[in-house]
Amino acid sequence: MILNARSRVRPAAAAAVLMAAGILQASLPAGAQQAPRFSRSSLAQTASFVVTNTLTPKGGSKVSQVMRVEVKGNKARVEYNNPQLGGVTYLANEKGVFFYVPANKVAQRQRFEGGADAALQLAFRQVNQQLQGAKKVGTARVSGQPTDIYKDPKSGATIYVGRAAGFRLPVKTELKNEGGTRTLLVTNIKTNVALADARFTLPAGVQIIESTGAAGGPGMPGMGR
Question: Core-most of 46, 96, 172, 207, by most CB within 10 Å?
Answer without folding.
Answer: 172
